[in-house]
């Protein structure tokens, strides 16, 4: 029974990760005036987005702990977004955004002991 639940949660995490990647990519490549909540602090948006992405990538492959490969994949994604923004006329490449992305990944690693206590998501760490 537990294996079935794990399988469903993993599937849900992977679908959520794909949805989040598509949504974030779209939001990063449209003009800023078309983005909801564009008046929020840009760096805070990056930190929150990458905190969530880090949880989703970690939950999508629960058989391995968060490691440098998962983190590097997310930083590569963040770099790709920045490069793509540099090719637009209405956005710009920002190294500070990439630092904020890394801060979101780091925030996940620091807060994961607290996240393990949240019943809705603690299944991620209950794997043997």
Automatic annotation (TrEMBL):
Q: Does the keyword Membrane apply?
A: yes
Q: Which UniProt keywords apply?
A: Membrane, Transmembrane, Transmembrane helix
Membrane-crossing ranges are 12-32, 44-61
So which domain of life are we looking at?
Bacteria
User: Is Transmembrane helix one of the keywords?
Assistant: yes
Name of this protein: VanZ family protein
Q: From which lineage does this chain's organism come?
A: Bacteria, Pseudomonadati, Pseudomonadota, Gammaproteobacteria, Oceanospirillales
